Amino acid sequence: PDTVRLLSSSQVITSVVNVVKELIENSLDAGASSIDVKLENFGLDRIEVRDNGQGIKAVDTPVMAVRHFTSKICRHEDLEHLETYGFRGEALGSICAVAEVAVTTKTEEDEISTQYTLDLTGKIVSQKPSHLGQGTTVSVMKLFKNLPVRRQCFSSTKKCKEELKKLQDLLMAYAIIKPELRLMLVHNKVVLWQKAKVADNRSALLATLGPSAIANLIPCHHHQEQPEILLEGFFPKPGADYSSTSTSNPDKTFIFVNNRPVQHKEIMKLLRQHYAAQYADDQARNRYPTLMLKISVPPSSVDVNLTPDKTQVLLHNKETALTAVEALLVSLYGFRPN
Ligand code: ADP
Ligand code: MG
Fold first, then answer.
1. Distance in Å, CA 49 to ligand 2 centroid
2. Are residue 160 and residue 294 in the same domain, yes or no?
3. Domains identified in the chain, total number
4. Which ligand ends up closest to the CA of 94?
5. Pair (70, 183) in one structural domain
């Protein structure tokens, strides 16, 4: 059973970025307005995610990291109107199988916080009073300690830097989609990046990408009924100098489906084609627009079960989504690329 647990967990928990993603999503599901992410040695020695959310109720702590425990879904039908990031009850348990985990938590009712140390199976092995305020702090030490090959693979300087960059991009995505959230990233005690609470998506884009990157972005909006789909976002102004509205990587093209940061190849391709078609210059074709696209559809029409990390989603009405995105692009850039 230990080997089975290790194998399946290693498929859910694939990297430092993926651990942080799961922990941040738990914090957001708990209603946090402030999240601190602290890493030591690029997260391989220690990852700590602290939030000021509602905390974990004492009755739930014994099972919080037990496989398939979730406090978020009661009935199968709940999946049809899913509003939380988590629903599988898999992350915490899987992290326990591949690292050393401690959870400190305090709800509004608790007088003080308690720190729980968990074992490989997610069971509490010890607990002690702690001094933290309301919310939850999850510490993940020695990630992949029992998967030496994977740990080795993430240890090279090159890989560490790539992963840190990916993590920064992911944090940016949450910063943009959650303007009211305060976020901070610390590595080896140095603050690498932080973002204060702001009022709206535009201010969040400004806080995240800086004034020059957003100077040429304009708000866009497209709504369609039957089937229902709402597109909102900030796109490069038609005709703007592409050296100021695009990058050589897709890392500043932020796409969200029902508030989840996603990678959607076909939508990305459409965005790129329409954007590039404005320019006669071949160079434009190799560039990715800096933009934010927020797609909202009824929860029942999106399937987030496609990959364990939920970065790829299946839209039941994919054609509708693509058509809507295309309509928005045509209204903005005025023609159809061939
Ligand atoms: P899921 O998010 O799919 O429910 P997880 O394994 O990520 O599963 O978390 C298990 C449970 O632990 C959650 O359902 C929640 O009750 C609790 N939990 C985990 N992290 C937090 C947090 N930061 N704040 C409050 N509760 C949490
Ligand atoms: Mg979760």
1. 13
2. no
3. 2
4. 1
5. yes
CA–CA dist 124, 101 (Å, integer): 10
The structure's pTM equals 0.93
Kindly state if the Cβ of 22 falls inside 6 Å of ligand 1.
yes
Cβ of 88 closer than 6 Å to ligand 1, yes or no, is yes
Among protein residues, the one with the nearest Cα to ligand 1's atom 16 is 71
ipTM of the complex: 0.99
Range of the domain at 130: 2-195
The residue out of 131, 164, 195 marking a domain boundary is: 195
Task: Give the Å distances, CA to CA, from 129 to 19, 100, 105.
Answer: 25, 19, 10
Q: Which atom of ligand 1 is nearest to the CA of 27?
A: 23
Q: What is the CA radius of gyration of the chain?
A: 21
Q: What atom of ligand 1 comes closest to residue 103's alpha carbon?
A: 20
- Cβ of 26 below 6 Å from ligand 1: yes
DSSP string, 293-338: EEEE--GGGEETTSSTT--S-EETTHHHHHHHHHHHHHHHH-S---
Ligand 2: centre distance to CA 90 (Å) = 7
Same domain for 182 and 266, yes or no, is no
Q: Ligand 1 centre from 26 Cα, in Å?
A: 5
* CATH code of residue 25: 3.30.565.10
Domain match, 315 and 245 both: yes
Structure tokens at 59: 């009755």
Each residue's pLDDT tens digit, 228-276? 899 999 999 998 888 888 898 888 999 999 999 988 889 999 999 999 9
Q: Give the CATH number of the domain where residue 287 resides.
A: 3.30.230.10
Instruction: Please write the tens of the pLDDT for every residue from 32-61.
Output: 999 999 999 999 999 999 999 999 999 999
Q: Whose CA is nearest to atom 4 of ligand 1?
A: 70
Last residue of a domain, one of 169, 195, 221: 195
